[in-house]
Amino acid sequence: MSTCNFGPPSDVDRFYDNLNRVLEGNHPDLSEKERFWLEVFQEVARSYEKVPEDESYWLSFAALSDCYEKGKADNRQYLWTACKHNHLDYRKHRRRSRSWEIEYARQRRQNSTKNEWELVDFRLDLRGAIPKLRSQNPLHAQVVTMKWSGESNGGIAAELGITKRQVEDTYQTAVRSLQALMEAN
């Protein structure tokens, strides 16, 4: 967070640093107010499971900053509602081109990647494989990117004019094709 150095840091500035530590897996000493904010962030993150967790926390932090400026950061309902609205806006306006990539990379990291450089290599391979999949089978690429961006099978089916079952079958086939393309690299 970029702030001007005119006086001591605010509670939100200090929380920003501690939130970074929390997201890195550390357990910093939090003030009572910071624990309160983190608890609200966790509640909201659980309510929006399709939003990647770290993205959820930063959406909530943006809402907290706005609430703090309005003098409402200590009001649980007001903060929770502001966080909720940021999440709804994110889901409505998210950029599909990045969301699915981040989600897939996050899932892969949780499942098997131990080394951060492996994750970087994986994401580069993924970026290279998606255009190849798109050139081989545009429907497969579209279903994969829509699914990874959080769209439901029903939403994808309605948009593409196919059944939910066809969405799931296409997705499974597309993921296998994508894995084969990545292994060929």
Set down the secondary structure blueprint.
Layout: H1 11-23, H2 32-47, H3 53-69, H4 76-93, H5 96-111, H6 116-136, H7 138-148, H8 153-160, H9 164-184
Helix pairs in contact: 1-3, 2-3, 2-4, 3-4, 5-6, 5-7, 6-7, 6-9, 7-9, 8-9
Describe what this molecule looks like in 3D.
The protein has 185 residues and is mostly helical. The protein has two domains: 11-93, no CATH class; 96-184, Orthogonal Bundle (Arc Repressor Mutant, subunit A), CATH 1.10.10. 76% of the residues lie in helices and 0% in strands. It is built from nine helices and no strands. The chain starts with 10 loop residues before the first helix and ends with a helix.
**CATH class value of the largest domain:** Mainly Alpha
Number of strands: 0
The radius of gyration computed from the alpha-carbon positions, rounded to a whole number of angstroms, is 20 Å
End-to-end separation: 38 Å
Task: Return residue spans where pLDDT drops below 50 for at least 5 consecutive residues.
Answer: 1-7
- Share of residues in helices: over 70%
The assigned CATH architecture of the largest domain is Orthogonal Bundle
Domains counted in the coordinates: how many?
2
Per the CATH scheme, the topology name of the largest domain is Arc Repressor Mutant, subunit A
- Element order: H for helix, E for strand: HHHHHHHHH
Query: What is the residue-averaged pLDDT?
Result: 80
Indicate the overall shape: elongated
Helical region count? 9
Strand content: under 5%
**How is the biggest beta sheet arranged?**
none
The helix/strand class is mainly alpha
